[in-house]
Design a protein that fits this description.
Elements: H1 3-35, H2 39-65
């Protein structure tokens, strides 16, 4: 692919992926907070899982790729 085209496509694709992730995550947080019995604690638990799980998964993937 042409480097000029690629220099526009990659940032645009990353922006779209981050936006979709943010909207989906916001929707999930809203639904958990307003439509489940877990309420605020459910949102806090999901946030903590993301906060701890993301670096943990990255570490495990990095460790497995060093072999």
């Amino acid at each position: 692919m042409n480097k000029v085209v690629l220099s526009f496509v990659v940032p645009l694709a990353s922006f779209i992926m981050v936006a979709v992730f943010a909207v989906v995550l916001g929707y999930v947080f809203y639904q958990v907070h307003h439509n489940t019995e877990m309420g605020t604690m459910g949102v806090i638990i999901i946030g903590m899982v993301l906060l701890i799980g993301t670096p943990l998964i990255a570490y495990l993937l990095e460790k497995s790729s060093e072999r």
